[in-house]
Specification:
Elements (H helix, E strand, L loop, with lengths): L1 H25 L2 E5 L2 H4 L3 E3 L4 E5 L16 E3 L7 H4 L7 E9 L7 E8 L2 E6 L2 E6 L17 E4 L4 E10 L12 E6 L1 H39 L4 H25 L3 H30 L4 H18 L1 H4 L3 H25 L5 H24 L11 H45 L3 H39 L2 H10 L5 E13 L2 H8 L1 H22 L2 E6 L2 E6 L8 H22 L6 E15 L5 E5 L1 H11 L6 E4 H7 L3 E11 L3 E11 L1
Parallel strand pairs: 1-5, 15-17
Antiparallel strand pairs: 2-11, 3-4, 3-5, 5-10, 6-9, 6-11, 7-8, 7-10, 12-14, 12-15, 13-14, 15-16, 17-19, 18-19
Helix pairs in contact: 4-5, 5-6, 6-7, 6-9, 7-9, 9-10, 10-11, 14-15, 15-16
């Protein structure tokens, strides 16, 4: 009986040991947290070992789950071939164990993540944090957490961490492949996070604000004085630098990976923008836009293309970006050194600040690239902090101070040159001043005479134009360069024609007839001017005029008839003193016409319309020494003149028209 009890006790001990060993085997500790973890501010990277399985089951998050059959991997690069070859849409579960010593139980712990994924974080089977959005829940959103996750260590013993992980992008398109988890003391982590945040805010935001202020100042300076294009180029450089630093700062704070990538692209593009305009500014001051600038611009375009299309330029765009920045610095050093050697005025002032600025900038860029863009300050080294602060202040103010000094020097130099020229003017002898005054008087006289000649020629041109065109039409042609044809509702058209002109030419000679014709037409011109008629043209021995345009006149018919009667009177008197004087007949008709200029060369003012044709028929059907008017004209003037009614007379192309001879005025 005694042996039976001993055997049963032994079996119970073995069974208990078996289950304890099984539990320990399923959850072997990744790390053990003891009291010194908190006193010495340890940071522990939980890179491996991690157990993983591809699939999705929420039961895998439970604390006591047996993961002994899962495979092991490192989470930093996902080195396991199954993970690298998995379907991108698959979810992966990771598990590891942390042992809490009795000296560290119920203490706060900090988990810092670096990833590009949607993740559920479980501590002892309980969901403590979700990052991003899984594809099953809608549009996937993958984030890189910027703030640590705070948890309690709990009681002493073994605790499990389970990660539900998803990133459906192809591996070669992922910005961060895998994930990292760092376990740290929350007090130490928060202090470091605040120090880093203050450092970034002070250096990046402060610097961006100063550069943006410089951008506004120099842009306004250029707008007020646009001849100084260096202010424009320098303002564009400052704008690019401010956007470069501001986008860089925001990229630190962005959890969304795509947003961070876009901000990084904006930062890089802004840096290239600043580099190009810095080169333009330096070439404008100390050189010219040549092959160096074209090469720099081409590299900038290539870099921008590679950054935009990351698949093409992966792992190459950063190197070209460094080359562009390096080339700008080298070009700046070359231009400034050459300007100083050539003793270009002001180059020493601006050169000192630019050399210092580029030296510090170049060193800072190299440092940031080598340190993966991480800015840090050693809080324990007060001398180093002070030296860094002084260097930073000098770096910030080197460009604006030296550029302002350069502009001040140039302004002062211009003022000195102006003062020197004024002194030279004041030292001129009175004799030279007299010569200048005499020359001025001669010049004024020449200008006066020349102006007088020009005015005389202008008057001739105007008189010639007025001899061809009506005054109103001529003014419109001078002001607008063209005239538009106009419709006149009611005018009176006058036609005259000398009878037997050809027969008289053969009888008394062509020259004598032409002389007589010139005398008569000259008198007709005077009569037209007297009664306000506009002479249109002469056609052989015919004379055409119109009353009532270009300025409308209600007495147009009376004026036309009075002019016609005076022409008849003149011809009768002419025949008394010159037996070879020509006989004449006149016709007048009233109605609408269109008047304007025909052609662009040797142009003439003319009238068109049925009224002109009817007036010609009135003249053709008149008699020697008679003024023949139409019924339309008769109706306008019947109370002002005496008439002889002729009845209806057949006319060419117009049919029978009523006509009247005007005998005299009442």
């Amino acid at each position: 009986m005694k042996h039976t009890k001993n055997i049963c006790l032994f079996v119970l001990i073995l069974i208990s040991a078996f289950f304890d060993a099984q539990k320990t085997g399923n959850s072997s500790c990744n790390v053990v947290i003891k009291e010194n973890f908190f006193t010495e501010n340890h940071n522990i990277n939980l890179e491996k070992p991690w157990k993983f399985i591809i699939g999705d089951d929420k039961n895998w998050a439970k604390s006591g789950f047996d993961d002994s059959k899962w495979e092991s991997t490192s989470t930093e690069k996902f080195e396991h071939s199954k993970i690298q070859k998995k379907n991108p849409k698959d979810i992966i579960w990771f598990r590891t164990a942390i042992c809490i010593d009795s000296s560290a139980e119920n203490q706060p712990l900090s988990l810092e993540f670096r990833s590009e994924a949607a993740m559920d974080v479980y501590w002892d089977g309980k969901l403590v944090k979700r990052y991003g959005t899984f594809a099953k829940e809608g549009e996937p959103e993958y984030v890189n957490p910027t703030k640590p996750l705070m948890i309690s260590s709990g009681n002493a013993g073994i605790h499990s961490i389970a990660i539900r992980y998803e990133n459906s992008r192809p591996l070669d398109e992922q910005e961060i492949f895998g994930f990292e988890i760092t376990l740290s003391n929350p007090n130490h982590t928060v202090k470091e996070m605040l120090d880093d945040s203050v450092t970034r805010s002070f250096f990046l935001e402060g610097l961006a604000f100063i550069f943006f202020t410089l951008f506004l100042i120099h842009l306004l300076t250029f707008l007020f004085y646009r001849k100084e294009r260096s202010n424009l180029y320098f303002s564009m450089f400052n704008f690019g630098m401010s956007m470069f630093l501001f986008a860089w700062f925001l990229s630190y704070e962005a959890e969304n990976v795509e947003t961070g990538v876009r901000l990084g692209l904006i930062s890089s593009v802004s840096g290239l923008f600043a580099a190009v305009f810095l080169s333009v500014m330096l070439n404008n001051l100390f050189g010219k836009i040549g092959m160096r600038f074209k090469i720099l611009a081409a590299l900038s375009v290539i870099t921008l293309f590679l950054m935009t299309f990351s698949k093409i330029g992966k792992n190459v765009d950063q190197q070209i970006f460094i080359i562009v920045i390096l080339l700008v610095c080298l070009e700046a050093l070359f231009l400034i050194a050459r300007a100083i050697i050539k003793k270009i005025p002001g180059s020493g002032i601006l050169g000192f600040g630019l050399l210092f600025f580029f030296t510090v900038l170049f060193g800072s860029v190299i440092y940031l690239i080598l340190s993966d863009g991480v800015l840090s300050v050693n809080a324990g080294n007060s001398f180093g902090e002070m030296l860094g602060f002084i260097l930073f202040i000098m770096f910030i103010f080197s460009l604006p101070f030296t550029f302002s000094a350069f502009l001040a020097w140039r302004s002062s130099n211009d003022k000195k040159n102006l003062q020197l020229k004024m002194e030279q003017v004041e030292t001129l002898s009175s004799e030279k001043q007299q010569i200048l005054e005499t020359q001025n008087e001669i010049l004024e006289t020449q200008v006066y005479e020349r102006t007088k000649e020009i005015n005389a020629e202008k008057k001739k041109s105007d008189d010639l134009l007025l001899n061809i065109l009506p005054h109103e039409v001529a003014e419109e042609l001078k002001q607008k360069g063209k005239t538009d044809a106009r419709h006149y509702e009611l005018v009176s058209v006058l036609f005259t024609d000398f009878v037997n002109f050809t027969m008289n030419s053969e009888k008394i000679g062509v020259q004598e007839v032409l002389d007589e014709l010139n005398v008569c037409f000259t008198e007709f011109d005077s009569i037209m001017e007297k009664y306000g008629l506009e002479k249109i043209k002469t056609i052989g021995d015919a004379y055409l005029a119109v009353s009532g345009l270009p300025v409308s006149n209600e007495q147009h018919a009376n004026n036309a008839v009075n002019a016609g009667l005076e022409i008849l009177s003149y011809i009768r008197e002419r025949k008394k003193i010159n037996p070879n004087a020509l006989d004449i007949r006149i016709g007048i008709h009233s109605g609408p016409v269109i008047a304007g200029i025909v052609g662009v060369k040797k142009f003439a003012y003319d009238i068109w319309g049925d009224t002109v044709n009817t007036a010609a028929r009135m003249e053709q059907n008149s008699a020697l020494g008679k003024l023949n008017v139409s019924e339309a004209t008769y109706n306008l003037i019947k109370n002002d003149f005496t008439f002889e009614y002729r009845g209806k007379i057949e006319t060419k192309g117009k049919g029978a028209l009523e006509m009247y001879f005007v005998n005299s005025s009442n």
